[in-house]
Design goal:
Distance between the termini: 10 Å
Number of domains: 1
Shape: globular
Order of helices and strands: EHHEHHEHHEHE
CATH architecture: 3-Layer(aba) Sandwich
Structural class: alpha/beta
Helix content: 55-70%
CATH superfamily: 5'-nuclease
Strand order of the largest sheet: 3-2-1-4-5
Number of strands: 5
CATH class: Alpha Beta
Number of helices: 7
CATH topology: Rossmann fold
Largest sheet: 5 strands, parallel
Length: 139
Amino acid sequence: MNVLVDTNVISELKRGRKAALPVVTWFESLLPENVFTSMIVLGEIRRGIELIARRDKLRSEALEQWYAMMRERLGSRVLAVDEPVMTIWARLSVPKVLPVYDGLIAATALLHGLIIATRNTQDYRRAGVEVINPWQDRP
């Protein structure tokens, strides 16, 4: 099973010992080579780090280190938003527009034949993407 992990899954895993056990168990059942994400997800995470940096420099430095480690582990499994993704996104956006980030992530998953792992299943299902909710679904 090849999956594209959404921001909320990565954020949950970042919680370490406080992370929801079903999410951790589900993630640990995956082979690393089957885990992908979108450049959009990385952008959302970077934005969060930038917001934290405005009020807590020490915490943002720790998050920068975590981000670098996570980014290295993902390697080439971070998928770009390119013209084929944008073409699918445009089709998904007519007639009813999805939230932009969700639409781009959905288009990426559709292009690459991936299941999206997320807590936000409604928008992705509306886009016709297969989803798994690691908080609820069993591995």
